[in-house]
Amino acid sequence: MANNQTPLTEEEKKLFGDLMPEELEEIIDSGLNRRHFMKLIGLASAGLLAAYVVGAEQALARGVALDVQEFPPAAVENAVTVNFKINTQSVNVVVDSRMTLLDTLRERLGLTGSKKGCDHGQCGACTVIVDGNRVLSCLTLAATCEGRSVISVEGLAKNNTLNPMQAAFLKHDGFQCGFCTSGQICSAVALMKEAKEGQASYITSNIRQPQSSITLSDDEIAERMSGNICRCGAYPNIVAAIKEAQTGKAVEQTWQFVG
Ligand code: FES
Ligand code: FES
Q1: Where is the 2Fe-2S ferredoxin-type domain (predicted)?
Q2: Strands 149-151 and 79-86
């Protein structure tokens, strides 16, 4: 089995060295595990992580090395081999023909950024981008992705540089628990292409008039993102983030620190 270890950058070493000095060696040797993650979450709730947010962006947004889980064909029922690109890297993976893209990403490729919310196509948490269009990976069979290009949230940042949409979500605090966030961000990134191509939505007026490129209003953004549910209700911040990423103009934050 391939080594799944992505070496830490110097910034990440510093971040973890400051936050969790006693675990640094272990993190370097074996990567972040659940215990470290829970500690990070604890620090985030205590506000301490905010002071390290630049390093945290890098630590939490960076792509990961792929670890394709190889199973002997006998262990996979109805095995099919699927070859597709994931975050620009080609993979050849043997899957059960009934396996969803979401399970393939999470269970076979170790890409756990895409979340399983409802597993029924109702929440949008599992949204990824296939050939430029957003799809619900819980309703997409991996076998249908042969020869396609799949982008998950892990593929949006380039090295240590966030995708502008990720940066805008951070700036506008477009997440609270964060469980829906990878789907929201993938959806929002693909939304940019839809707007650029002038694709109409349910509330676009005069759909008979072909449009070249649409600058989205708040209502248009809300309508087009309505398939992505956020149970924490970060919607105003998400709309502000998408608006800023689409127009390239700073949108005033709807929140501020007090005290
Ligand atoms: S997990 Fe796919 S839509 Fe909810
Ligand atoms: S940030 Fe919690 S569900 Fe969206």
Answers
A1: 80-156
A2: parallel
